[in-house]
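FIELD: query
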Amino acid sequence: MTFDVKSADVLICGAGIAGVATAYFLARHHGVRDIVIVDERPPLTLTSDKSSEGYRNWWPGPGDEMVQLMNRSVDLLEEMAIKNDNRFHMNRRGYVYLTADPERANNMEQQALEIEGLGAGALRADGRYEYRADARFDAALDGADLVRDPAVIAATFPFLSGDTLAMLHARRCGWLSAQQLGMHLLEEARSGGVRFLNGRVSSISAENSRVQAVQVLSRGSLETIKTGAFVIAAGPMLSEVAGLLGIDLPIYHEAHGKITFEDSEGVIGRDAPLMIWNDPIHLPWSSEEKEELAADEETSWLLEALPAGLHFRPEGGPGSKTILALWPYHIAVTERASWPLKFDLEFAEVVMRGLTRMIPGLAVYLERMGRPVIDGGYYTKTRENRPLICPLPVTGAYVIGALSGFGIMAAPAAAELLAAQISGAIFPSYAAAFDLARYQDPAYLHLLESWDPTSGQL
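FIELD: result
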């Protein structure tokens, strides 16, 4: 489309969940009327629709800022779900972390106590555990339950491996429909006057280090839109867009894939929560397969222990038999994102074989699995896996990004924060933890030296 007025109070580059949510909060909570979202793709179609759609407030440190951010985001999701009759199908079945290793069970308990101290809710280990498969998003479920009785685990989730020794059920967690959430935010934003322009930001005019206008290539012609506020919400394209301002953001990308398959035999209960195997896994192979794999250096790694973190959940409504599964056993890191994403030919088989360690009954599909659907997207990350939600060194420029694999769940609180910064409103104390200026703090840089880049990541 072509606008009669070539100006905007705020121009947002990127129509993924972060950009759409920012437009929503600016328009509906701060009364900003003249907002333009620019994207060369349809809204919510690059990375946002590749999400596993989970949410949780269960986050490790250092510090409590991620727990605060996610607690606020879940608050906002609940408020929206109540107002729109749960249009985006939010549930609170929880995240269940599992182990067959006694030492890892002890570590899970210690980590849970630390997370409890950060504000994610109390840890309960008194044996009075109950799973509520119908858990609504507004249920009074918080904190986590640690269960170390294998008999209770087996009775609750009989499809799990019989040697499962312990499980940690984080409660203020679940999943939702990312597409429906995004469309709700977009529709609400549009009703507040937000406009969408199909095009690509090609350059940014800045005088005296202040944003003046943005050039957009749309349908073969160059549009110049005057604006004093430019938001980079470009997901995996953050670096390229920030580069137009001469800004080098400290980010990189990881390609993450997932598979969906049909559990036609009903091995996994449809009321299962999201479940994570917390132990490394040796894939099951026959003696002949082991010999063949060992003989080729390109496949011999398949005989090694693969990392923890394999997880799955049921997908779809009543009548569905679909399972969604993810396992970041091998992460490809790149400085520049490119499409289409390509995944190794053995990816689906590796995930399925790994799942049989967690759920032995799935072995029935190893020989007749059919063709699982494989897709995925990029986790755009900072080195400590914390987002960037802040003004940039060029006045009038802002960023909301590096949302890693938690973009859907963090988007409401992240967008609320950025909208407050743009509007000059009061914003929460945790804002400093997500500001680019943190990399100018010597104490923070020292902390980064021992920071796990996978902190909080599934």
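FIELD: remark
The chain has two domains: 7-53+178-251+382-448, 95-172+253-381.
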